[in-house]
Amino acid sequence: MLLCVTASHKTASFELLERLSRTPDDVASTVVDAASCVQGAVVLATCNRFEAYVEMDEPVTAAGAIGVEAVLEAVESATGISTAELDGAYEVHSGRHVAEHLFSVASGLESVVSGEGEIAGQVRRALKAARKDGTTSPELERLFQRASQAQRKVKNVTALGRAGRSLVRLALELADSRIADWSAERVLLVGTGAYAAVTLATLRERGAVDISVYSPSGRAEKFAAKHGIRPVAHADYAHTARHSSLLITCTTATEEPVLTPAHLQAKSGVAPTGCPVGVHGQLVIDLGMPRNVDPAVAALEGVALLDLETISLHAPLEELQATDAARTVVREAADTFHVVGSRQSVTPSVIALRSHIFSLLDSEIERARARGDEDGKVEQALRHLTGVLLHTPTARAHQLAASGRADDFAAALATLYGIDPIEPAQASLDDGAATA
Question: What is the CATH number of domain 167-313?
Answer without folding.
Answer: 3.40.50.720
